[in-house]
């Protein structure tokens, strides 16, 4: 099936409404959102570990009651679920595989903001595939670098596609939009960049018990992601998303939510749940790398098999 056949639709099923209602109830009766309350759900402060545009985007939820009222967490959980649903609508597949995957459930339990990187993927995809105005690519790039370990490779891929397929001044729209967003954050939150970098240095999550990185061995994934074979844009996007995670010095299970959302298949859902076994047996949270690695090999095999199908068709035409 070609990428063009994945036209976005907006069905609202009883099951989907039930999932949203269930998420609301869960956030009301169960504890959770620890990372969100610690890093993201408050007004910007000097010790934040998030770029300033995250606090700018989430500023409206600070009007809701503070902890222990759950509503800020509830809103972020619902936004995350809706973003995953929209991503699946864009790329095709069954949203239930993504919504019930371990990375998604871990994301909402922690109150993480993976939806921002996923939003960047969707906006970038709309620009390169559905010809949305390139100024939205600037928004996409800002969203993608919110979680560098998730989005930097995807951001570079989008820029590459923009350069080879669009007019050169389209890139100016992209750069201008990104700079305007950055300028706005600096006007509202002066000196946030050095403060943010210092907070990241002090946090230093690399090597901790939840770090699933296999760096530098994971850099080998780029050899597969950049294979010179005829692959669709969507396949290449998935391969690069996997290589970005695997080649990162740090990523956790929940960081896999974006790649799972754009590759919603039952086999990958099953693999995501395999990561729970070492957690239960030995409190080992460092095996999430099997998720992007499985998707990387799975999508590469699909692209490779399609390559041979194309070659066989060409040979058949030459014979007849």
List the helices and strands and how they pair.
Blueprint: H1 14-29, H2 34-40, H3 52-57, H4 71-91, H5 95-99, H6 102-110, H7 114-130, H8 135-144, H9 148-165, H10 168-188, H11 192-203, H12 221-225, H13 233-246, H14 257-261, H15 266-274, H16 276-282, H17 290-319
Helix pairs in contact: 1-4, 4-6, 4-7, 7-8, 7-9, 8-9, 8-10, 9-13, 13-17
Describe the structure.
The structure is a single chain. This protein has 320 residues and is mainly α. The protein has one domain (10-319). It is 66% helix and 0% strand. The protein has 17 helices and no strands. Helix 4 packs parallel to helix 7. It is globular and about 55 Å long. The relative contact order is 0.11.
Describe the structure in brief.
The protein has 17 helices and no strands. The chain has helices at 14-29, 34-40, 52-57, 71-91, 95-99, 102-110, 114-130, 135-144, 148-165, 168-188, 192-203, 221-225, 233-246, 257-261, 266-274, 276-282, 290-319. Helix 4 packs parallel to helix 7 and helix 8 crosses helix 10 (168-188).
């Amino acid at each position: 099936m070609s990428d063009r056949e994945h036209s976005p639709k907006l069905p609202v099923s009883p099951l989907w409404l039930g999932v949203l209602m269930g998420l609301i109830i869960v956030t009301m009766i169960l504890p959770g959102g620890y990372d969100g309350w610690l890093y993201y759900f408050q007004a910007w402060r000097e010790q934040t570990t998030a770029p300033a545009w995250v606090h700018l985007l989430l500023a409206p939820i600070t009007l809701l009651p503070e902890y222990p009222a759950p509503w800020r967490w509830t809103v972020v959980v619902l936004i995350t679920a809706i973003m995953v649903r929209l991503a699946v609508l864009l790329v095709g597949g069954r949203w239930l595989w993504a919504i019930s995957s371990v990375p998604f459930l871990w994301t909402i339990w922690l109150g993480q903001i993976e939806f921002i990187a996923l939003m960047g993927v969707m906006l970038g995809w709309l620009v390169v595939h559905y010809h949305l105005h390139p100024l939205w690519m600037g928004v996409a790039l800002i969203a993608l670098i919110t979680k560098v370990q998730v989005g930097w490779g995807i951001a570079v891929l989008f820029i590459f596609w923009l350069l080879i397929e669009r007019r050169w001044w389209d890139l100016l729209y992209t750069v201008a939009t990104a700079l305007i967003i950055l300028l706005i954050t600096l006007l509202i939150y002066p000196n946030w960049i050095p403060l943010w970098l210092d907070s990241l240095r002090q946090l230093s999550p690399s090597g901790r018990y939840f770090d699933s990185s296999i760096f530098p061995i994971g850099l080998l994934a780029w050899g597969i992601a950049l294979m010179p074979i005829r692959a669709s844009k969507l396949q290449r996007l998935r391969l690069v998303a996997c290589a970005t995670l695997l080649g990162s010095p740090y990523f956790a299970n929940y960081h896999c939510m974006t790649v799972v959302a754009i590759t919603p298949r039952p086999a990958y859902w099953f693999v995501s749940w395999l990561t729970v076994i070492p957690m239960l047996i030995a409190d080992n949270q460092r095996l999430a790398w099997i998720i992007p690695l499985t998707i990387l090999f799975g999508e590469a095999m699909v692209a490779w098999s399609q390559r041979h199908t194309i070659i066989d068709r060409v040979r058949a035409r030459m014979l007849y």
